[in-house]
Every structure is written in C-alpha cells, then in structure tokens.
Design goal:
With 312 residues, the chain is an all-alpha fold. It has helices spanning 9-16, 39-42, 67-70, 81-101, 108-127, 132-152, 159-186, 193-215, 230-247, 255-278, 287-311.
C-alpha cells in the first residue's frame, strides 16, 4: 500500500473514535496575535470554546484519570513491524488531533513541534519495515511534510526552527539515498538509467539542504564564522562530514565528473580536519567523524591521482 500514513484505514478509524487529544493549557502565540483564553476557563455556560471562529470544540482532558490513554501504548519494547505500526497509528491519531487546534497561523512553535513529532513517528516506524521501497516512501512522507513546513516559515523570524527543519530534511534525503543504493545493489545487476538519476537526485537534494543549513550560519558579510557557537558546532561539522560522504555517492561514468565530486568530497572532509586542528579542544565532540575525515583526506588525493593518470 503506497499510502504509508494510513497503513490500516480501519484501525485508524477505530483509533479516531477513541477520544480527543488532550491539552490542559493554552498555546504559545508566535504570531503575536491575541492568545486564546485558557481552555479550563473557556468552556462555561455558553458552551465549549471556539477557535478562530471555527466550530471546533476545545480539545482537553476530560479528567485527570489517564489510565485509558496510557493503556493505548505498550510499555514493552517494540520488536516487530506490527507492534510498531500499532504505536505509530496511536501517535498519528494524536498528531492529527493536535494539528486541528495548534494551527500554523497563531501557533507556529507548537505546529512546528507537532510536525517534527510526526516526522519522527515515520522515521521510527521505518526502522521496522523490511521492504526498502516502503521504507523509502515513509522517508518521502517526512520530506514532503518538512519541505512544506519550511516553505511556510520566514527564516528571518524563525531562523532556529528553519535550521532544524533544513537539517532533518537533509537527513531524510540521505536515508532515502542509502535505501535506493541498497535496492540497486540487491538487484545484482547494473543500475538502470532511472535508478542512477534517482540516486544522484537524492544525493543532490540532501547536499542542498545541508548547504542551506550551513549558509544560515554565515554572518552579515556572508562569511562562515571562524569559530562556531556551542549550539551550532557539532551540527556544522557533521553537516560537512555528511556532505563529504554524499559527494562520493554520485554515480557517473565520466572520469572528469568523478574527479569533481571527489574534489568536493575532499574539501568537506578537509574542512572538518582543519577546524579540529585549529580548535583541538573540541575534537571529542566529533571523534568518530574526525577519524573518518582524517582517513579520507589522505586516501582521496591518491585515488584522484590514479584517475588523472588514466586520463593523461
């Protein structure tokens, strides 16, 4: 079934009848409009509170007895896809209910966090899916929701949030890429033109979103800072590490194009190495990545020289 989000429509319908999502407090009003009244005070003699003029009943806990809600999700370790799907459907039910109240217009931070939770539900479910094509479609759902969200946000006002979404989108594209490569390798035959194009497109999409993240770190003069702040340090270095890896994933029979991609890959690996040399106190933060970057910065020039010799 291609519609991964509705993995079991009957089950999803049954879950939807189980009750509304709960919230005993109001929401952050990120667009600086008037905040809605406190939910506990809104449902008075005149009936339930309405949101932005809609005919929506306020979603709230009916009581503090939450056993029925807790029992919907197992307290045991999930070990297979069917168990994971059950938890996923419960989570998606509450995500959808929450999105009815915490809309983007007026509740930006809440809506973003709900969408990120939804994305992580798909990511967690994909771990248990054995079929690589279906797993890839789950990550595609993540990409679609995150890109749509990013297009709705102004980075001047929500820069930190946009950075999170850029980074997560890059990771999702990278996971799709790895799955497509695995599918091509499992076929035990030369990848088709379509498969090659898909792999290269996914690599470029992931690189593009990592680059968007890195560009957001530039100062007013459009220059990359010589020293990253504490909260952007590891993400910035890991983004460079991932971009170095992604450039090596491009498929091409053109030796010149291979050299170009290898050169770009080397640049990103070398950036991590040089930064750690200049800031030796931070090497523990990227210890495993630094080891690979150091190795690749020594290996790639040798491989590139071999290709050049075949062209001479």
């Amino acid at each position: 079934m291609d519609d991964i989000g509705e993995l079991d429509r009957t089950k999803q319908k049954d879950l939807a009848e189980g009750g509304a999502v709960a919230s005993s407090n109001g929401s952050h009003n990120d667009d600086k409009q008037d905040k809605p009244e406190d939910p506990e005070k809104s449902a008075g003699a005149d009936g339930p509170c309405r949101h932005h003029g809609d005919e929506k009943s306020l979603l709230r806990f009916e009581s503090l007895e939450l056993t029925a809600l807790e029992d919907q999700v197992t307290d045991r370790k999930v070990t297979d896809f069917d168990q994971a799907r059950t938890v996923f459907l419960i989570g998606q039910k509450y995500v959808n209910a929450a999105k009815e109240f915490y809309v983007l217009d007026g509740h930006v931070t809440d809506f973003v966090e709900i969408t990120q939770d939804w994305s992580q539900l798909f990511r967690a479910l994909s771990f248990f899916e054995a079929d690589f094509e279906r797993r890839c479609k789950m990550h595609k759902r993540r990409v679609d929701m995150l890109q749509l969200l990013l297009s709705e946000l102004n980075p001047q006002h929500y820069l930190l949030v946009c950075r999170q979404i850029m980074y997560e989108t890059a990771e999702a594209f990278s996971e799709m890429l790895d799955l497509k490569v695995a599918i091509a390798e499992a076929a035990d035959e030369r990848p088709t033109v379509h498969a090659v194009k898909k792999i290269n497109t996914l690599a470029q999409q992931s690189i593009g979103h990592y680059q968007m993240f890195l560009d957001s770190l530039r100062n007013a003069d459009k220059e990359m800072p010589k020293t990253f702040s504490e909260d952007t340090l590891r993400p910035a270095l890991v983004a460079n590490f991932c971009m170095g890896r992604l450039y090596s994933k491009f498929l091409s029979s053109d030796p010149q194009l291979k050299l170009q991609n290898m050169s770009k890959s080397l640049d990103h690996y070398q950036f991590v190495v040089d930064y750690c040399i200049a800031h030796p106190d931070i090497t523990e933060l990227v210890k495993s990545e630094l080891e690979i970057c150091t190795e690749m910065s020594q290996l790639l020039p040798i491989q590139m020289e071999k290709i050049r010799l075949t062209l001479s």
